[in-house]
From TrEMBL:
<feature type="binding site">
    <location>
        <position position="714"/>
    </location>
    <ligand>
        <name>Mg(2+)</name>
    </ligand>
</feature>
<keyword id="KW-0479">Metal-binding</keyword>
<dbReference type="Pfam" id="PF00391">
    <property type="entry name" value="PEP-utilizers"/>
</dbReference>
<feature type="binding site">
    <location>
        <position position="735"/>
    </location>
    <ligand>
        <name>substrate</name>
    </ligand>
</feature>
<dbReference type="InterPro" id="IPR013815">
    <property type="entry name" value="ATP_grasp_subdomain_1"/>
</dbReference>
<keyword id="KW-0808">Transferase</keyword>
<keyword id="KW-0418">Kinase</keyword>
<keyword id="KW-0670">Pyruvate</keyword>
<feature type="binding site">
    <location>
        <position position="531"/>
    </location>
    <ligand>
        <name>substrate</name>
    </ligand>
</feature>
<feature type="domain" description="PEP-utilising enzyme C-terminal">
    <location>
        <begin position="491"/>
        <end position="839"/>
    </location>
</feature>
<dbReference type="GO" id="GO:0050242">
    <property type="term" value="F:pyruvate, phosphate dikinase activity"/>
</dbReference>
<feature type="domain" description="PEP-utilising enzyme mobile">
    <location>
        <begin position="392"/>
        <end position="473"/>
    </location>
</feature>
<comment type="function">
    <text>Catalyzes the reversible phosphorylation of pyruvate and phosphate.</text>
</comment>
<keyword id="KW-0460">Magnesium</keyword>
<feature type="binding site">
    <location>
        <position position="738"/>
    </location>
    <ligand>
        <name>substrate</name>
    </ligand>
</feature>
<dbReference type="InterPro" id="IPR040442">
    <property type="entry name" value="Pyrv_kinase-like_dom_sf"/>
</dbReference>
<feature type="binding site">
    <location>
        <position position="714"/>
    </location>
    <ligand>
        <name>substrate</name>
    </ligand>
</feature>
Amino acid sequence: MQQDTDITLITPDAPIGADTHGGRAKCLQRLARLNLPIPPTIALSFKAIQRIAAGDMPDMRALLSQLDEHALLCVRPSSEDSDWGGPRAVLNIGMSGAMCETLGARIGPEAAKRLYLRFVESYAIHVARLDPDMLDDMPGDPEDALAFALRVYEDEVEEAFPQDPAVQLAEVLRSMARAWDGTTARLLRQAKGAPADAGLGLVVQEMAIGLGRGECGSGVMQLVNSKSGARQITGRYLSQSQGRDALSGGKEALYLERDPRGPSLEELAPEAFAQLKSHLSEMREKLREEMQAEFTIENGKLHLLDGVRVARNARAAVSIAVALAEDGIIPREEALMRIEPRALNELLHRQVDPEAKRDVLARGVAASPGAATGKIVFTAEASQAAAARGEATVLVRRETTSEDIRGMHDAVAILTERGGMTSHAAVIGRGIGLPCVVGASSIRFQTAARKLTAPDGRILKEGDEVTIDGTNGEVLFGRAPLLDAGHDDSFQVLMGWADDVRDIAVRANADTPMDAQMAHNFQAEGIGLCRTEHMFFEEARLRVMREMIFASTSADRAAALERLLPMQRADFADLFRIMKGQSVCIRLFDPPLHEFLPSDRAGHRELAEALDLPLSKVTRRVEALAEYNPMLGMRGVRLGITVPEIYEMQVRAIFEATLQVAGEGVEIVPEIMIPLVSASREVELVKGRVDSVAAAVRSETGRDFAFRLGVMVETPRAALRAGDIAPQVAFLSFGTNDLTQMTYGLSRDDAGRFMSEYVQLGVYPEDPFHTLDLDGVAELLSIGAERARAANPNLTLSICGEHGGNPESIAFCRAAGFDYVSCSPFRVPVARLAAAQLAV
Ligand code: PEP
Ligand code: MG
């Protein structure tokens, strides 16, 4: 036997690599090592195929001499990664007039003619490149059909159909090698992530013929269900068939296992069936993977043609990995590494069925994963009204504001024209697990006229149905088929293993008791950010809040805050109870006050009525609070220092709630976080007030309690001056949403408009609101962390911007020595797994 590494018979110790001969060749070798019944096969390396494409054909006779001269052959692609595709397999090479005669004696003349016909057809189309239409009028009778196909071939090619197997094989190899080099194939595989120089290997295999006397046929079989991962024999088998016939539908496939509904492979070929099962179990154990076998039965005898990794969705992937580890076939760490953290989204949210046709109206930023179908509405009120009628709505807004929150809760999905990964709609959507597409600016939004115009001119009116795919950032026309979310025991087991190896904690951003419950269910280790302003949008509170904003004297303001105090106390006590003593980090009030006021004239009039004030006074106050750039204006700690009563009320509510739940047996050390700090003196001032409220509560109640004060680092200056700030506090948490906004000078609410163009042009490698910018923003984090730890080694460090749920960003935080990351509740499992993978 010729020992050539580029053209080699597959034997247990032949020099074959997936990176030189492709995945199929490597896998066949693994099967050969297991002594499984694979037909003799020759692997041609990437290099051999490159040479063939360039016109340098190896000696076919030498190649054929290694195989049975009476056998038919097939050639199949073997690329490095099977997802990259490859030319179609060509079967029945070696078929000729003479072979038809010989084979006819064995399998019957009709079956032999069908094989010959099949070869002539595929050779004509894929090798000689004849137009498939030419074979349209094929007669039904196999003999006539064969004569017809041979005639068409001869007429078009002006040559007799080649009868020499060496010629046939050479031509097949040449055409497959060239097809790989074609522009379409190249573009297709590059779109799937293949490198420009991805190689193609080919395997030439002796065929087991699935046609003939006795039980003959072909099929595929696996031991698990590809959608759930449950142990279940699945696949297809078709008698008198070959190749992937059984998969092409149309003809009636048989059951694999014995089944009352009809004949099965198990009954027709019991021995072959039993062998298949045992081979698959062996493959699972030895190849450490759930495999699908491609097989042929020839007169009841089993031949394995190939074994491929079972195709699977995310849910099945989790359950397969867990089962392999539980059976001791792979270590737990490997099971953890086999799951792409983001794929867990598929288990946590409903998704558009990946096999369904998609009628895409437009694309935007995939701001919150999951999918939902609903009728479009253009106002929060319409969404609430529809919800009351039990209708599912998609809330469509140019952008959302705090006033839309209740409407958002009542919608099944959100679509906005503006915004990016950290805009209001995106943050709320992720927080409550609502599918959300933002920045869909290719759609024309005419919210006043209540219509949308898609880029292709289609017009949608209020009440028309769309499906929002927040996982892929697509808006689909009408009702798309959805797959339910579903996680099972395997998911919980995998998460448990992740927690065992993980060395950075994961908390959740949670603002309301509902969020906190979700965070707790996803086993977050506490709350890393409670945005207290989100507690003020409930109708009754909003009214008191507005009274507070309109108070003209300090006494009036105090009276309004006095009414807010018990509400906040109850909010915090609820959070503490739900989190059962785990850390809860409460951020003091952050947004500018004007966000709590109505923005239009009708709203002003309503407010004037409610507060019993003249309209002009309301309008003046709204105008007085207006700012040119509210994001950089009177908000956060600036408000805390200039209107200190708000923070004092909140801090008192936190302390009183702490004492309240302590009475119920829930021990908690609350964390109080000051937002938007840029100078250490700000911290000093707020700290002084917090300490005096603590002293007051202690002396009023005669009870002691502990708390931790910290700072949210979300301005570049706070990061740079972290050394001054750190000695005054117990923790620093990086708010990378604002920090990204301020470092880039890039509005988080407007970036969606041009972000995809910027990323496409390579200006930014990724949306920096989504993946932490390692070159710039992360440097500020490093500087901040280093200076802070140098000044206060006991400091707790964390991240609470949206990046906290992003696997790449978590890697940075872990390397920088952070104690925890905090992200939206639905992203907690993703973060737990991503963090675990870093520690494996
Ligand atoms: C931040 O700025 O990173 C943050 C977490 O706060 P918010 O998104 O509320 O501004
Ligand atoms: Mg912020």
